[in-house]
Design brief:
By secondary structure, this protein is an alpha+beta fold. It is built from 6 helices and 25 strands. It has a 9-stranded antiparallel beta sheet with strand order 13-10-11-12-25-24-23-17-21. The model has no long low-confidence stretch (mean pLDDT about 90).
Length: about 375
């Protein structure tokens, strides 16, 4: 291996793939990165056996033609590049190890035997769809608030992906709340198999996408794995086995109360109430009054309580209902429009939250049962 490239470009690539490496991997081998040089690129690959990231750095035409691989510990490689401020750096193989040399610094990092390290998947899943990056990022953020954090039911820690005609639907639920988002996509077939991607995979994809919302995301999958192509990076993940709950029946269709209000103002009110409700499980009460206001108040806690109100357009029946403040804050934070709509059917049945600015998104919350 003999490659000369921009140090910052290599540093970003190493950072991108090494983020999935655990601080103390179950298998010591998984603390490494596989570097593969071909005639046109340098490829970096890291994996924890559930999730893998492959990123590619194009090489200049004057790079010596070589095809070689090295397995190098991720941490010393990342830290050396982070402390190096030179513009360019040369990588040269030294047996199983790697020599790095720039204008003011040089280092040698011991490698490990190639045969023990997993290789990136070379097969291409049979199904493929393309979605605008800006839309996909938004959908992952909006639906990503609902998967379960505990893995007692693994299917609830993931995100259901359903493709019908030219519509991609993402759904997640922890059994206390549910988020659903529809996207228009480009797909070669009208109906594709439904799959469940791990919530961690969705979170990692969001980090890979960063703040650049231009371009498309290419999504490939089959019955066993999925792959996401974002720029020069490929995220590879296993799928979650199991049947996702039949969720359509829990989304309310008829309502006794409907409230239209300003999202940013409600966000401030719920944040204030949550300050005093954290010690009581973050429970808050929301009073939707047909007199034209919504009142938000915390319970009586060690440090006191708070009561706030705002103007709102409330039709139907007045109702007071209790929610987990975090559930309310989550949906208010992932929506960006000015207006939000609450639809309710009594204090013990799920509430539906939508926004006129995004008719393809629905969020359902189960209320809390508390006295007083």
């Amino acid at each position: 291996m003999q490659v000369e490239i921009e140090r910052e470009q290599l540093s970003q690539a190493v950072s991108r793939v090494s983020r999935i490496i655990a601080l103390r991997p179950a298998l010591p081998m998984l603390a490494n990165i596989l570097l593969t040089q071909s005639e046109q690129s340098l490829e970096l690959f890291a994996t924890d056996l559930e999730l893998g990231i492959v990123t590619t750095i194009p090489l200049t035409k004057d790079t010596p033609h070589d095809t070689s691989q090295l397995v190098i510990p991720a941490r010393p490689l990342f830290e050396f590049l982070a402390t190096n401020t030179d513009q360019r750096i040369t990588l040269t193989s030294n047996g199983p190890g790697l020599r790095l040399e720039s204008e003011h610094m040089k280092a040698e990092i011991s490698g490990v035997e190639l045969g023990e390290f997993p290789t990136p998947p070379t097969d291409t899943p049979k199904y493929q769809i393309t979605v605008k990056k800006i839309d996909f990022i938004q959908a992952l953020r909006q639906v990503g608030i609902a998967p379960a954090a505990q893995d007692t039911r693994p299917v609830l820690t993931g995100m259901l992906v359903v493709v019908r005609e030219a519509i991609l639907t993402l759904v997640a639920t922890d059994s206390f709340r549910l988020a659903e988002k529809h996207l228009t996509i480009t797909a070669p077939e009208s109906v594709l198999p439904s799959i469940i991607i791990p919530g961690r995979t969705a979170s990692e994809l969001l980090r890979l996408a960063g703040t650049d919302s231009h371009g498309d995301v290419e999504f490939r999958f089959d019955e066993h794995q999925c792959q996401f192509l974002v720029g020069g990076t490929r995220l590879v993940s296993r799928l979650i086995d199991g049947s996702f709950p039949a969720y359509q029946g829990i989304i309310p269709q008829a309502f006794q109360t409907e409230a239209h209000l300003k999202r940013a103002e409600l966000l401030s009110l719920v944040k204030a109430a949550n300050v005093f409700s954290r010690e009581s499980g973050s429970s808050i009460k929301m009073n939707f009054s047909t007199d034209g206001f919504i009142q938000v108040r915390s319970g009586q806690g060690q440090f006191g309580q708070v009561e706030t109100r705002m103007e709102a357009e409330v039709t139907g029946e007045s109702i007071e209902i209790a929610f987990n403040a975090r559930f309310v804050l989550d949906v208010l934070n992932v929506l960006s429009g000015q207006d939000i709509v609450f639809r309710l059917n009594g204090k013990t049945t799920p509430a539906l939250v939508t926004t006129p600015d995004d008719p393809n998104y629905r969020y359902v919350m189960t209320p809390l049962r508390i006295e007083g």
